[in-house]
């Protein structure tokens, strides 16, 4: 089969021909129809995360071995299945839950395999979606997408699931009754707006530096949008809320600036959910955290149960998919470049010949 392989960090993905895997037991082989490209793919391509003070978290020290086939937002058609596969048939179009754990660690034992200590994530530790086919370790990680469009559905495996899990970390009584603030209107931000609508939220205020992305957020249904680089941003946010601070903020960017502003607009008994990993350090006035009983929580992708809940909403057409910028599979390096340089509105998705 054809694949695009990362052989060396910071170099273009290389087209290669490798053996197509054969499934056995609970395994399933999908012919890929659509593969989303995620910001994490850019981090993996670069080979590190910025953790502040010029320090880097090197992926090679975290068990990530090259060569690797990236890509973790996958929709494909079942072409072969092992003898223990039930419920699914050849020809079904399925979305893949890629955050597969070891099955034995503390996180896996409490159904939080997305925090596994020895993960088998597709597109990170195991071959992912930048290929013609993908081998999924068990049918349990597949959901039939019925009549949904594979190209607009792939985003739910990471972007959609990540935002859904972040939203679920906020009390329902907050987001259904009061506006919440979201930093970032890339693919995740737009998806968050749409999911919050499906969950009957009061509404979302979006902070974003890029004007075209702010427009996209308004079009997706944000109550209002604000420029991240506006020097009066904090006062404008409070002005919108009649001078009040906010009970919940989701930071989808996660850098020095957004973490500082997020904190400054938090009210008593509020929740800050940090999702973005653009890096750096934050300097919060520590005394205010206990004084205001602020809850700061991180969120990384989502668990399998959350994926089932989210896909139930998707299949019932409760969520408007985030706009997609589609690229033919062979334009993968161009798509990665566009995403890295901020030139994608919505989600970048690779589309395969049918
Ligand atoms: Zn991702
Ligand atoms: Zn585990």
UniProtKB/TrEMBL annotation:
It holds the Pfam family ADH_N. Its EC number is 1.1.1.258. Coiled coil: none annotated. The keyword NAD does not apply. It comes from the Bacteria. Residues 187-314 form the Alcohol dehydrogenase-like C-terminal domain. Residues 26-143 form the Alcohol dehydrogenase-like N-terminal domain. One of its GO terms (molecular function) is zinc ion binding. The keyword Nucleotide-binding does not apply. It is an enzyme of class 1 (oxidoreductase). PROSITE patterns: ADH_ZINC (PS00059). Keywords: Metal-binding, Oxidoreductase, Zinc. Belongs to the zinc-containing alcohol dehydrogenase family. PANTHER family: ALCOHOL DEHYDROGENASE 1-RELATED, VACUOLAR PROTEIN SORTING-ASSOCIATED PROTEIN 11. This is Zn-dependent 6-hydroxyhexanoate dehydrogenase.
């Amino acid at each position: 089969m054809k694949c695009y392989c990362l052989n060396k960090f910071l170099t273009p993905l290389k087209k290669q021909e490798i053996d197509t895997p054969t499934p056995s037991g609970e395994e399933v082989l999908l012919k890929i129809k659509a593969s989303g490209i995620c910001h994490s793919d850019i981090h993996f391509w670069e080979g590190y995360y910025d953790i502040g003070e010029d320090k880097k978290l090197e992926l090679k020290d975290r068990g990530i071995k090259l060569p690797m086939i990236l890509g973790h937002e996958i929709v494909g058609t079942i072409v072969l299945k092992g003898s223990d596969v039930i419920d699914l048939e050849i020809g079904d179009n399925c979305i893949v839950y890629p955050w597969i754990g070891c099955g034995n660690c503390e996180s896996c034992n409490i159904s939080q395999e997305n925090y596994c200590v020895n993960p088998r994530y597709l597109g990170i530790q195991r071959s992912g979606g930048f290929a013609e086919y993908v081998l999924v370790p068990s049918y349990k990680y597949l959901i039939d997408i019925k009549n949904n469009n594979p190209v607009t559905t792939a985003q739910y495996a990471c972007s959609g699931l990540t935002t859904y899990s972040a939203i679920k970390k906020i009390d329902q009584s907050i987001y259904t009754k009061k506006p919440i603030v979201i930093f970032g209107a890339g693919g995740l931000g737009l998806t968050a707006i749409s999911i919050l609508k499906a969950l009957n939220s009061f509404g979302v205020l979006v902070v974003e530096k890029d004007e075209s992305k702010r427009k996209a957020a308004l079009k997706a249904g944000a109550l209002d949008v604000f420029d991240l680089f506006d020097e009066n941003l904090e006062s404008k946010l409070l002005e919108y809320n009649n001078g009040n601070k906010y009970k919940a903020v989701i930071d989808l960017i996660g850098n020095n600036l957004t973490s500082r502003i997020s904190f400054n607009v938090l009210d008593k008994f509020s929740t800050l959910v940090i999702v973005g990993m653009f890096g750096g350090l934050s300097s919060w006035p520590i005394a205010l955290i206990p004084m205001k009983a602020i809850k700061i929580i991180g969120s990384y992708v989502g668990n399998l149960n959350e994926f089932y809940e989210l896909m139930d909403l998707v299949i019932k057409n409760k969520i408007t998919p985030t706009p997609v910028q589609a690229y033919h599979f062979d334009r993968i390096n161009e798509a990665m470049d566009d995403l890295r340089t901020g030139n994608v509105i919505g989600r970048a998705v690779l589309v395969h010949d049918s």
